[in-house]
What does this fold into?
Amino acid sequence: MKESKMKVKVIGRDHKETFKDILEEYTKAIKEFDGKYEEREIPIDDGYYIFIADSKDIWNMSRDELVELWEKGIEEEEEEEMVGF
It folds into this structure.
């Protein structure tokens, strides 16, 4: 994966959910980007994930790189939860 300082926010939804189900979380996420963002959605396992980034480089990333980015985010969330205990 390219090493960069690209800011990325990942929002997931279950395959049974619609965009309307994640609209509030999506709206909060794009506000962090001041209206200047690129987004890309891919299926992973039984869900769909929207990658919101501050760079068009998100389009140059392979599916494997995006999945790796998603996995890294999951690991970071788990670490944050462990600190809370």
Notes: The mean pLDDT is 88. The beta strands are 8-14, 38-44, 47-53. The first strand starts at residue 8 and ends at 14.
